[in-house]
Each structure stands twice: as structure tokens, then as C-alpha cells.
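Project outcomes to date are best conveyed with an example. Our students and postdoctoral researchers have been running inverse folding experiments weekly, and each run begins with a structure described purely in C-alpha cells. The record below, which covers 434 residues, was selected by the lab manager from last quarter's runs and is presented without edits.
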């Protein structure tokens, strides 16, 4: 084997081994680095403004940014987690008591007023031939199911506190990473840009698209989800439905799924209220869900996404749906942001590869869905090249364009008029007459 090939393979093997070792070193902190990078990318303009007010003090500016984000984001999330745990533990008991108070016998014996409607008589008569309603203990089955859920929650309460401890550790690592990314992030980005073998303009394009996707995911997707969760929880609270905070959070999580949304949460409750005879509450919840919550998804989400992202970086609805599901499975909650980011990065790299492999004679235009311009650029005017002997005799300085050496005002005016005539669509003679 050639010595050069041997040493190349050896260095490449060492590089892969070291790269894998470095990954193992940083693997426990990958999620904290990802979340810290997302938060820093979103709030870095604010950090630059703060640093401009206190020049020469990047440590203080970074510490203030971390403290501000902790007060604005971390404390509300922590309080919400504690409220959810309390709501889950108490909600099972409340639901058990509520179910025991309900009269399900009228449903099973088909004596409920809603079942007396003429349109339901024929299907129910057909159903009575195959089902013995007297042997069904629906109330006991539901109560046993709720008790099993409550018992499961009590048995796994220790696991909740262990998960909460892990969350606090992750939070501490995020804050530490944020501090150093605020202070030294620009140096790290400059270091990477010098070592990535692509032109600077294409580097800026990749970074710009990554920043747009992160902002669109946070402001558009996450912002809409929070608004829908708040609206749904408020409706549940006003209508007196149990566990309003819990169901509001569930609606917020369901809003990340483009083809499902909060509808799968509030719609069953509207039907349940209808069967309970609470017609007014059922209609109110339906109108609120369709008009208010639905419009927030159809109107607010596109407005927020368009305000921070260009059309080329907006993914198809099906691709977005599948990427969010896969991202949640692989990365957890961070997959809501990371999965669309990975797809846009892949499309951007394919675009860069296509630009690199395209023949030079082919006109360059955007690939990822942007409209192709119909404007044809006129070829540049040919510059006359003088004979080599003339250039040699005149000297190298004569290659520069020389201005006409005249000081007569009439000659200058005539030259300017001819120049204007050549650069316009009008007749030069008319310009001269003018």
C-alpha cells in the first residue's frame, strides 16, 4: 500500500475514533446544549442591545440574560408542573366521586330522554336484540378504571419526584450553557465558519434558514399552542368542567399535531355535556372551540409563521405532521423544533449540492420552491482591447479608463447629452433639440 494512502486512512480512522469519543463525552449534555442554543438564538438580539448599554462587561450581560429568562420561562413552567401533578392526583378522586353520582341506569335501560328521539328508535331496537343491558355494570367498570389510574399514580409518585430532580439538573445545565453561549457564542460560530469548506455567502444562507426555522417553530407553532391551551383551559374553567389546567395543557400539546389539534379534546366533552342534558354548555363549548380556538389555529399560526419565516422555508403540512411525530419520538419535546430544523437543513444542503454540480452555462435560480425570475439580464458591453503594442508603448497605467481631457463647457455638455441619449429609449436628436 502506498505510504500516502496508508497515512490518509490512518488519520481518517483516528479522526472518526476521536469524534465518537467526543460524542460520548458530551452525550449526557446534548439536550441541555440544544435547548440552550435554541434560547440563545432567539434572544441574542436582546443580548446585543444589553451589551451595548454595558460595553466591556459580557459576563454581566450574560448573567442578566440568564436571570431574566429564568424568571420569564423557568419559574412559570415549574409552577405549572407542580399544579399538574396536584391536579392529576386530585382529579382521579374527583372523577370517581362524580361518576358514582351519575345515573347510568337510564342510559342502559334506554329510558333517558335523549334516547326517545324518533331517529334513534330503530337503531336502538335493533341493538336491543343483541345486547343485554341489565348485565352491564358501566358505572362499576368506569369507577374501577379510575381507581386503577389513581393507584398507578400513587405508586409512581416517587418516579415523578425523580423525574423532577432530573428536570432541575437539566435546567441548571441549560443555564450554564446559556451563559457561555451568550458570552462566547460569536467566537464559536466564527470558528465553525472558518472550517466549513463552503463559501461565506452560502454559510450565511444556511445560518439564516436555521434561524428562521427555529423562530417559526417557537413563535408560530409553540406560540399558537400556548394560546390554544390557555383558551381551552379558560373554557373548561368557565363551564365548570373538572381539571381545567390539565385539559388545557393537553390541548396545548395536541395543537402541535396539524391534523388533530385541540378538537380531539374539547369535542368529546361537548358530546358528553350534550348527553348529560347540559345543552347550553355543550353549545357554548362547541362555539368556543370552533370559532375561538379554531380561528386561533387558522389565523394566528400563519400570521406568526409568515412574520418570522420566508415562504421557501415553510414545510408542507404532511411533512410537518410526520416530522413532529418522529421528532417527539426521537428527541422528546425538543423534537418539535429539531425535526423541522433537520428537514430544512437537508433541503438546504441538497440545494447547495445542486448549485455545485450545475453546469456553469445553466442559469442559476432558487431550487426549493421559489419562483423563477423571467427577467433576462442583458449581456455586459464588450470592452475594446487595444493592441499589445499600443499597451506596451503606453505603459501599464494606460489600461485604466481615461476621462476626456477637455475643459470646454460646450464639449462637456455635448458629451453629457450624447451619454444620456445612449442610456435612454428616446431619440438622441430629440435630446439635442431639447
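After processing, the design step wrote out the following sequence:
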Amino acid at each position: 500500500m502506498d505510504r500516502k494512502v496508508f497515512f490518509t486512512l490512518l488519520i481518517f480512522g483516528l479522526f472518526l475514533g476521536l469524534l465518537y469519543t467526543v460524542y460520548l463525552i458530551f452525550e449526557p449534555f446534548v439536550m441541555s446544549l440544544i435547548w440552550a442554543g435554541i434560547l440563545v438564538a432567539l434572544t441574542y438580539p436582546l443580548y446585543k442591545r444589553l451589551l451595548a448599554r454595558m460595553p466591556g462587561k459580557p459576563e454581566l450581560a450574560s448573567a442578566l440574560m440568564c436571570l431574566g429568562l429564568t424568571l420569564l420561562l423557568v419559574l412559570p413552567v415549574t409552577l405549572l408542573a407542580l399544579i399538574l401533578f396536584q391536579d392529576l392526583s386530585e382529579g382521579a378522586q374527583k372523577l370517581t366521586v362524580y361518576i358514582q353520582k351519575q345515573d347510568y341506569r337510564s342510559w342502559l335501560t334506554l329510558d333517558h330522554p335523549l334516547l326517545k328521539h324518533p331517529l334513534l328508535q330503530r337503531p336502538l331496537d335493533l341493538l336491543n336484540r343483541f345486547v343485554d343491558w341489565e348485565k352491564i355494570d358501566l358505572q362499576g367498570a368506569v369507577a374501577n378504571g379510575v381507581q386503577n389510574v389513581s393507584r398507578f399514580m400513587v405508586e409512581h409518585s416517587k418516579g415523578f419526584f425523580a423525574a423532577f430532580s432530573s428536570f432541575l439538573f437539566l435546567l441548571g445545565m441549560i443555564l450554564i450553557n446559556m451563559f457561555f453561549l451568550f458570552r462566547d457564542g460569536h467566537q464559536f460560530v466564527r470558528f465553525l465558519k472558518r472550517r466549513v469548506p463552503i463559501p461565506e455567502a452560502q454559510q450565511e444562507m444556511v445560518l439564516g434558514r436555521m434561524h428562521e426555522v427555529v423562530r417559526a417553530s417557537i413563535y408560530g407553532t409553540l406560540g399558537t399552542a400556548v394560546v390554544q391551551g390557555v383558551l381551552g383551559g379558560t373554557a373548561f374553567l368557565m363551564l365548570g368542567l373538572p381539571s381545567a389546567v390539565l385539559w388545557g395543557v393537553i390541548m396545548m400539546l395536541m395543537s402541535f399535531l396539524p391534523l388533530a389539534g385541540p378538537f380531539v379534546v374539547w369535542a368529546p366533552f361537548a358530546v358528553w355535556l350534550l348527553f348529560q342534558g347540559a345543552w347550553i354548555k355543550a353549545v357554548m363549548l362547541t362555539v368556543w372551540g370552533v370559532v375561538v380556538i379554531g380561528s386561533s389555529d387558522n389565523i394566528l399560526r400563519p400570521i406568526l409563521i409568515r412574520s418570522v419565516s420566508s415562504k421557501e422555508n415553510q414545510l408542507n403540512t404532511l411533512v410537518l405532521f410526520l416530522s413532529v411525530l418522529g421528532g417527539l419520538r426521537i428527541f422528546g419535546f425538543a423534537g418539535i423544533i429539531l425535526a423541522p430544523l433537520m428537514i430544512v437543513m437537508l433541503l438546504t444542503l441538497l440545494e447547495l449540492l445542486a448549485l455545485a454540480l450545475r453546469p456553469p452555462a445553466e442559469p442559476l435560480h432558487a431550487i426549493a420552491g421559489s419562483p423563477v425570475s423571467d427577467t433576462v439580464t442583458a449581456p455586459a458591453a464588450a470592452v475594446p482591447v487595444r493592441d499589445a503594442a499600443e499597451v506596451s508603448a503606453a505603459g501599464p497605467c494606460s489600461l485604466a479608463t481615461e476621462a476626456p481631457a477637455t475643459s470646454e463647457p460646450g464639449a462637456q455638455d455635448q458629451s453629457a447629452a450624447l451619454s444620456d441619449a445612449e442610456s435612454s429609449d428616446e431619440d438622441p436628436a430629440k435630446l439635442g433639440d431639447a
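The chain has two domains: 30-195, 196-357. Residues 205 and 272 are 52 Å apart (CA to CA). The training component of this project remains on track.
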